[in-house]
Specification:
disordered N terminus; elongated; 11% strand; alpha+beta; disordered C terminus; four-stranded antiparallel beta sheet
Amino acid sequence: MTAREGMAPAAGRGWWSTAISVALVLAMLAAAMIPWWPTYESPAFFTAAGAAIVAGAAIGVAGARFRAPAWVVVLAVVAAYLVLGVAVAVPDRALFGLLPTPAGLAELVSGAALSWKQLVTIAVPVGSYQALLVPPFLLGLVASTSAVTIALRSRRPAFAVLPPAVLLLAGIALGVVHSTFALEAGLAFFVTAVAWFARIRIAQRRRIPSGRPVEATLADARRVVGTSALIAVALVGATAAAVVLPVPARTVVRSELQPPFEPQQHDSPLAGFRTAFGDEVAEEAMLEVRGLPPRAGLRVAVLDSYDGIVYSVGGDDGNGLSGRFSRVPYRLDQPEDYGESQRIDVSILGYDDVWVPGIGRLERIDFGGPRADELAEGFFYNDVTGTAAVQQGLRDGDRYTATSMVPAPPRDVSVLRPGTSVLPPMPELPDELEDLLDEWAPPANAEGQRLAAVIEGFHREGYVSHGLDRERSRSGHALDRIAELASERPMVGDGEQYAVAAALMARRIGFPARVVVGYLRQPGTEYDVESDVVRFRSQDRQAWIEVQDSHGEWVAVDPNPPVRPIPPPEPDQPQSVSRPQSALPPPAELTPVDDDATKPDASADDPSDGGAGWLAGLLAVLEVSGVVVLGLAAILSPFLAVMVAKLRRRRLRRRAGTTVERIEGGWREFADTASDYGYTIVPNATRAEQAAMVGGLGPLVLASVVDRAVFAPGGPDDGDDRRVWETVDELQRRLGETRRPIDRLRAAISLRSLGGYAVTRRGARS
């Protein structure tokens, strides 16, 4: 046996047939790689995926060509992984971008076990960060080798669709939650899989000897046309279902895993607010920032959860979106309409904390200094609040460059309208704060005007004190301290109290609001105009709030009053709060009603009789039913199309123009039914031979009757066509009565008869 004969691909013999089979398998693998793209969004992904698919296909073809045993194929896969892996899956560790290095091989080997978890705990897109290209490369290499090997060497080449299907499902499970390319990926894989199945059927038919090459070619053409029609129907149905049916919430591995950074394990940045103002640390330089926009604050952390005692990041349990921190590989995609891109360079001096100061919404961060790699490895970011952190904490000598999208400068607060973001619930406001809100911002005014009045009230009546020396100002921001701030005169506190009070009042008005802790330029802040460098001291620490407007933008608002001398406290006296008196007219005198008077029938005219509710409920039921029916119709449309085509074919045969055509049509109908049930009906065999393939006396009798009617010199007798069709109906019933319902359903939707015997021959003529 020659090497060429030993290859014997299951889906067809010869190099041309092998090339077609390999091309279709590669198309399935390429379609299966589509769900991986939103996770990477980098040209390096195409290199890794393409190398994996091509290398795996080459191993599969070579293994089939030389009839290599399984262990040789496995060794070839391992060798390809080690030789190509560093260059395409860990390109940063490759020498000259091509040659593997010891460090690259170490990352490649460890990435085979560790990169899967890292991939689902890091923010996307990840690009070519570290060894995160290993999952698609390794899985693509294995899937490509397995699929090509099954296609060329297995007796059941249809199973070659399974490795690409696993690759597709892995890309969906390990990918992102949003549905980018979801419909396109599913349809592309469906089209390539159906094309592969059609290829197998054509190859299997051609392996049966046939003396009519023209009819064989026509049969193949009709099979391709039928497959194309099925794909077209499926595409239309899937598109309609995607538009009409509601999209359920999608859950992937990434959305279920708990990130490794836990903000609840660290103290709230607001809890130790006053430690920055002690005499021994107030003048200490903390940060040097170059490129900070005018009037912008340097945010340390954004706090959106308040339990009545502490304002914190991400709530108590961290299950909210604001409590989920992800690793950032090298960049984040931010909406372009959020603002302008701004770059800042930050050098750490005396600052020592896990929170990474920044501005706006982060796009990219690059660390410098002796701990650059360590900080990059431990960097985490929450895109909901724009808060960043490093597990190791920042210290003197660290530096980084951050590029962020910065919103436009704050505009007039009075014109704002509340946004729609849902924040963690907050406790009830103290009565003192409610009274202050009613006094400063009556409910009759618009939301933006009320918020502006609250901020103006703090600026007007508030005084700043950090509780140093003999200054009277208690620390903390629990509800009792906020109530004290609202009730005492003069009002004395600092950013810790003013920011929390303003956030609570803003949320009471209706604005989504959160507290921001960071650094603001103060009158004594060092600023070098020429180098555009701001040096923040410890006492430049401040807290302010952000409120969301109706456009979804978070607007910074500073409620802190100006620093000025604090007047002596006012004597204790009851505080009277003037509330607007509502002048209500006296109730109208009721007209006596005779109890015995007959009440009008409200069933016809009274809209509260429930008729409208009943109609609305009926319409809702009809709407849901319509959506369900449309969805089922879209899913079942390909199968219904097959069944309708068979019914139409039967009708045309039974109503043919001549008696002979009706008799031949009856035999073709029986042969097609037998083919759909799995019997091998050879097109160039005689009717008697075809009947013998089915077995039983009934088919043999029917074949002889049809042959006599067709070939008899005098032609068929009157009524022969009717008797032939009655026999056909009986034989069809016998074929199905011994089968399971699922087998009868498979026969009804089978495509074997639509592209085979029925359309290639008008009976079996010798």
